[in-house]
Amino acid sequence: MGEQKAYGTVLLRAKSILDELLNYEEGLTLKEISEGVNESKSTTLKVLNTMQLTGMIRRNEDDKRYFIGPTMVAYGEKARKDFNLIQVTKPFLTELQKVTNETINLGIEDNSKVVFLEKLESTQAIHLNSSIGGSMDMYSSSMGKALLANKTDEELKEYFATHQLAALTENTITSVDQLMVQLKEIKKQNFSTEWGENQKEVVCIGASIVKRGVTLGAFSVSVPEYRVDEETFEDIKRLVVSTKNQIEEVL
């Protein structure tokens, strides 16, 4: 069977607009959206007007900024309920959150990014740049590195050929060789770490979720750096590996 082609340029433009809005909680102006999707303002406005009519997006009439609309929120909630990985992992991740009292994230790979499916908040003070439906780079995050570690050499070669390892913080690994060494270690030890590489002063310990050799997703524990000492790190690492094993046993 030949490669399936996408049909409908308006649908593709609408998806591009939604992708842009997804990562900006403060919304975007017409100019910002048109530049982000690389379309003229007139074309972008036509698509936006149609999307607004269907409830896919909404516009704040005071500052003329666009946001994800109520229709997409409803679709997103239905998709979350239907996605079996969330249902299967929820009891185990809830227990992990209770034991650690830290923020727990669940994500999958989509278009070479980590997309958040679930987030269980810590009751302790911590601000994380993450939200359900949002995304982050794979090379700089513990969930992303856990997913990358399960890829074949050819898949990794393709990933590195198409993705620049830009420095998001002073701790971000920007060397392919250095990251490859770390990925091999992650593969052996069954957990991944990220020390302020994606967000300053936040430490994440994560692991992939695998069923019959197929990587379904990953989860992580996010902790402010000031709360992480050697004992805490070892405890969370042990709990992450244990949770990974428990989840994979029921898949």
Could you characterize the architecture of this molecule?
GO terms for molecular function: DNA binding; DNA-binding transcription factor activity. Helix 2 (30-37) crosses helix 3 (41-53). The chain starts with 8 loop residues before the first helix and ends with a helix. It is of the alpha+beta class. The chain folds into two domains: 9-74, Arc Repressor Mutant, subunit A; 83-250, Beta-Lactamase (2-Layer Sandwich), CATH 3.30.450. The protein is 47% helix and 21% strand. It has helices spanning 9-22, 30-37, 41-53, 70-82, 84-100, 142-148, 153-162, 176-189, 230-250; strands at 57-60, 65-68, 103-110, 113-120, 135-137, 192-195, 202-211, 214-224. It is built from nine helices and eight strands. The strands form two sheets. It has a six-stranded antiparallel beta sheet with strand order 5-4-3-8-7-6, with helices on both faces.
Features:
251 residues, alpha+beta, Arc Repressor Mutant, subunit A, Beta-Lactamase, 2 domains, six-stranded antiparallel β-sheet, two-stranded antiparallel sheet, 9 helices, 8 strands, 47% helix, DNA-binding transcription factor activity, DNA binding, transcription, Tscrpt_reg_IclR_C, DNA-binding
Draw up the topology in text.
Elements: H1 9-22, H2 30-37, H3 41-53, E1 57-60, E2 65-68, H4 70-82, H5 84-100, E3 103-110, E4 113-120, E5 135-137, H6 142-148, H7 153-162, H8 176-189, E6 192-195, E7 202-211, E8 214-224, H9 230-250
Antiparallel strand pairs: 1-2, 3-4, 3-8, 4-5, 6-7, 7-8
Helix pairs in contact: 1-2, 1-3, 2-3, 5-9
Distance between the termini: 30 Å
| Rg computed from alpha carbons, rounded to a whole number of angstroms | 19 Å
Which CATH architecture of the largest domain would you pick?
2-Layer Sandwich
* CATH class descriptor of the largest domain: Alpha Beta
The overall pLDDT average reads 89
Quaternary status: single chain
Low-confidence stretches: none
Sheet-strand content, in percent, reads 15-25%
**Element order: H for helix, E for strand:** HHHEEHHEEEHHHEEEH
- Count the helices. How many? 9
Strand order within the widest beta sheet: 5-4-3-8-7-6
What's the main sheet like? 6 strands, antiparallel
Number of strands: 8
Look at the helices and sheets and give the structural class: alpha+beta
Tell me the name of the CATH homologous superfamily of the largest domain: GAF domain
- Could you name the CATH topology of the largest domain? Beta-Lactamase
